[in-house]
Amino acid sequence: MSRGYASALVGVLLLALGLRLAAANGEPWLDEIVSLQFAQSFAWGELVWGAGARHDNNHVLNTLYLRALSGAREPLVLRGLSILAGVATVAAMTWIGSRRSRSAALVAGVLGAGTYVLVHYGSEARGYALAMALALVAWCLHERALLRPQARTAALFAGVVFLGTQAHASFGFVVAACLLWSAFAVRPASESSAFGVREALALWAAPIAIIAWVYFVQVRPMYWGGGAVFGTGWALWAALGECLGVAYHPAAAWPERLAPPLVLGLLVLEIFLRLRERGSAGIFDAALFLGIPLGTLLVLRPEFVVPRYFAIAIPFALLLLASLFARALAAGWIARGAALCLLAFAVIGSGIRDAGLIRDGRGHDGAALARIVAEGEGGTIRIAANQPGWLRVLVHGYHAQSFPKARFEVSDFEAPPRSGGPAWYLHQSYARGFTPAPSVENAAGLRYALVDHYPFSGLSGWHSTLYRREP
After folding, report:
1. Which helix (H) or strand (E) holds 467?
2. Which domains does the chain show, CATH number per domain?
3. Mean pLDDT, residues 80-84 taken together
4. Cα–Cα distance between 132 and 53 in angstroms, integer?
5. Is the per-residue pLDDT at 392 higher than 70?
6. Residue 267 to residue 286: CA distance in whole angstroms
7. In this model, does residue 247 exceed pLDDT 90?
8. Smallest Cα–Cα separation from 8: which of 129, 122, 113?
């Protein structure tokens, strides 16, 4: 390995670490705080198999990590497991890409380090980053098992399958794709092949049992949390856009609307080229990207579908794009120029969003509460909210601990007022391009004037706008 190449790889990993540390240094948002509440409310074993913890916000390994922190509140500590997993994901992508070429390794590393969705979930106290890292490890172990079947490799693969499913249930998509990969790789006993039916059974007996247990014990009875409801097709389309750092939505500009079909076309092209090379790894890619929508629709059938449910596939999509980029470099100048333009588009697009996440975070409700406390007159602090359920979780689940002398009471903004009504109104919105009104009035005629606006810039979180009741 040349010194320049090694230095570039180290630089990629340092970039990955720096971006995730910077993006993690902000307030926790609602789902992270809900995970904290799970960690504080259930015993260790209950978080894994307890009926009360079967919730889509209980990403088991992350929740166990939060429980082990024993009440720590520092954002970088709460998100420490995801930060490490995010950097490990980039390292694994670089290593897998290196098996094709150095250019594929570096492009995979750059995309992994900076692509917005990987930075976002690599800096958030949830299970997505850990599931991505374990999925790449599972891929490597599975490939090794196909080439050189060993009991130790099979045991490691089964262990990673269990850990991956406990990181996030979407890990099952990767397991299903590996299973189909194995099926196509099996050779009859008449052929001289290391991977036959007996080796396949030895490799898959434990993982299939694990997946069955996870599905019937954890996933099938799972409660899916509330939120904006999107169709599976829309969520998949948006996830494709995220591969190029694009936040797809119906009102997006034409470059953002172009990104999902472009990514889809490039992925299909690279998978086709891999299958034509008669390498069985192409079966995994085809199965993963076809199995995710089918598995979601036919098996999980969630009422609440968002692009992050498909985040597990994005590192593999980026690896396919990096491989296609390496092919383009070896082709003519037109292909090379197109590949460089696409890489620049992805880097710039994600860079803009990464900068916004670092600047604005996932919201600043703690800052809004701090201002309310600083300008209050003591006693019970009464706050009206358009999302009172959310605000109660935020306040009583996390932020109130920063103000031990304050007592907060949260009510619905449109509820009939008592004793003159709350002095403060905290409005929350995750609408794009949200602009706060200079004043608002509820159904009872109470009028509130704008005090301050606290924006956010992420896939998670919301804008918070603080109002004070007018005399």
Report:
1. strand 463-469
2. 3-360 (no CATH), 365-469 (3.40.190)
3. 98
4. 23
5. yes
6. 9
7. no
8. 113
